[in-house]
User: Fold Circularly permuted type 2 ATP-grasp protein from Alishewanella maricola.
Amino acid sequence: MSLENFTGGRYPLLKNCFDELVATDGSARPPASAIARFIAKHGDLELCKRQLQLNQTISDMGVCFTLYADGANIDRAWPLDVIPRTIPSSEWQRTSAGLKQRLAALNLFIDDLYNEQKILKQGIVPAELILDSKNFLAPCQGVSPIHGVWANICGTDLVRDEHGQFLVLEDNLRVPSGVSYMLENRTVMKRVFPELFADSTIVPVDDYPAQLWQMLASLSPRGEHVPPCIVVLTPGIYNSAYFEHSFLAQQMGVELAENHDLFVEDDRVWLKTLRGKRQVDVIYRRIDDIFIDPQAFRPDSVLGIPGLIAVWRKGLVAIANAPGSGVADDKVIYSFVPKIIQYYLGEEPLLQNVETYLCQDPLQRSFVLANLDKLVVKPANESGGYGILIGPRASQSERDEMAMAIKANPRNFIAQPTLNLSTAPTLCEGMLEPRHLDLRPFILQGAELYCSTGGLSRVALTKGSLVVNSSQGGGSKDTWIINDEG
Assistant:
């Protein structure tokens, strides 16, 4: 059938960018046809009304995030755009398979690094990149968690290039966040657009909490015949992701605990309850590795549980993600993931990386320094969009400062081409305009592998910006996987 035109041809497609909803001729892509029909029938004014209704629903539900600014914690309502992002299910199946493949290989890699180190001995990955990494944690050596899985929850950031091909931008293997907003976005959109859900075959996302619980339960050292005691370990209410910690604990029906709620005794971890102590089997930790046990890592940590790592090393408690999994959550190691997949699985990667230059390599470093005005430079271990230089949009002084930082510590930086990230129609001051976005799906691995249906789409709300992080002014979109297979 012919597809409706988005906003009567008034939507300004950007050159050399793939638009998620709008084809080059201005028609709606097939997965977005129901949205186009809605806009054609009701117009921009109705979209603005629905955006106000959506904002009020978010406020009523208390969906928020914490922004750190000027030494203060500021709670903000979660920014959700009224126009969803649509992806056909046939494409998502291929993407999901690539994400599962990637996590399976990364877990084999981490397990090898902390044990036999075959990949280092064979020179596939340079040993100095691992052994000199701050994320390679000596107390984790000699351990192999249940199922050989270290990173049980992974948030992989995907972008589309100008041809519409999904590329992996980075892997988040320590304490990936954002899945609660993926779930809440869907809840809000169902309330605001019931007719669109009736007019489309949108694949649900609400099985994620059940899948997360099942994965965590599969890690229990006491086996499947004993109901597992699972806790979500949070740093507390002042953490920027506390909303997510409490949300996931509530959705799974497990305890939300801080370190003072737990203690180690007789080689077990115990939860304090009103009825006495209860043995803990699985800890879903939302605390960085080095703060989790002051006896094993930072002695000044006030967030950790003394003695936890010793119990974990004995296999008497499971921790997800396992301490030390961050050794593969490094933008330098990211560049080796295609080789890691080939080495451990004997397969070609189903998803490609973005072309990456390692500043540790002298030749590649020279290229990066000579082309800072064309490249995006990233520190190896920062997150949240911090420390990134977007060369074409940076001042000369900012590029000079980055050049000095690279020369001082080349191991800490990578560079990538400035991608024309895909766009999607976004409601901006009453008009639909293209804004750049990425996608963070969530992949689980325990006894089995699972990939979320879509993920959290993050959108740069500032015109022309490539920065999508909510901590730096970005917003989000509900991600609709549309069944296109009959």
Summary: The mean pLDDT is 92. The first helix runs from residue 33 to 61.
